[in-house]
Amino acid sequence: MTQSGSVSGPLVEIRNLTKHFPIRKGFFNKQVGAVRALSGVNLDIYEGETLGLVGESGCGKSTLGRVMLRLMNATDGEVKFEGREIMSLDNKSMKPLRKQMQIVFQNPYASLDPRMTIEQILAEPLVVHGLFQGDALRKEAERLIELVGLKKEMLDRYPHEFSGGQRQRIGIARALALKPKLIVADEPVSALDVSVQAQILNLLLDLKKEFKLTYLFIAHNLDVVRYISDRIAVMYLGRVVEIGPCSQVYEEPLHPYARALISAAPVPDPNYDKSQRIILTGDLPSPANPPSGCAFHTRCPLVQERCKQELPQLREIKPGHSSACHFAEDLLQKT
């Protein structure tokens, strides 16, 4: 039995995944450095689970989702989908696998082509993969739009005629068109009103149950991630620094950054003791020039000399709960 309750192994295995964006200057466009968006990420996503991925803006969350789906090329590392390594596949070999891996983008206003009707948007992936044509194509588009709570009469409209929440529903319908196993939801509710966020989250949960989907849910809103996720991975400056079951990560965080992140979440209680919050000093270091040793040591309230020299590895501290901190055992004793 896996951590998600599935009897099979991981659906996705990510090993040492690295992505550097070159920094170029001068007339000859010479590379003078690199932005280290991902620095050796190791992660497993189990079939049927929702893995929440959280962290500050610029930590590499969205880049991880895109590189994992081969929307960007990796600098190094490997990704296996159902045991098959996909980083080395050419476009022709990747095409059948793309049906199994889809994405819902963050911005519902930019992710839909304004020149296409909703029917054309939903039909496009079906036509590309040769699944439907003629009247059957229209019927499948009708099924998809009704699946996400919209009416089939809306198929002849254009994206600008819809609200943000409705557009995101259309984006979800498009992601479902090819009957995928994995959906990367990249900040799918961050651009929406709070009341609409709840509707979209509940829709995602209903669809997950109905179609046995697996989600990588990327977000910076901790309450949203807690509501929808089975496990949570915390990223900092291109690395996963903690991963574990949702309840354990929130109640017993084993990395100082995760503790600070969780303590900063708003608490709807007027009697809440604000002194419990951990206020980090300093800014997020530049991914083009990350600190030596543990990247968090420049802001960590528990920093010691070892942290400045030695990079901590992600290791299991409790069953299913891992941390990349030299002193995670000490944090566990203090919880």
Describe what this molecule looks like in 3D.
- The chain is of the alpha/beta class and 335 residues long.
- Helices cover 31% and strands 24% of the residues.
- The strands form 2 sheets. An 8-stranded mixed sheet has the order 6-7-8-3-9-10-12-11, sandwiched between helices. Strands 2-1-4-5 form a 4-stranded antiparallel sheet, with helices on one face.
- Helix 3 packs across helix 4 and helix 5 runs parallel beside helix 6.
- 38% of the residues are buried.
- The mean pLDDT is 91.
In short:
With 335 residues, the chain is of the alpha/beta class.
| Helix percentage | 25-40%
Number of strands: 12
**What topology, given as strand order, has the largest sheet?**
6-7-8-3-9-10-12-11
Low-confidence stretches: none
Mean pLDDT: 91
- What shape does the CA trace take? globular
Strand content: 15-25%
The SS-based structural class is: alpha/beta
Sketch the major β-sheet: 8 strands, mixed
Q: Termini, distance in Å? A: 28 Å
Radius of gyration: 21 Å
- The number of helices is 11
Order of helices and strands: EEEHEEHEHHHEHEHEEHHHEEH
Summarize this structure as a short list of keywords or feature phrases.
335 residues; alpha/beta; 11 helices
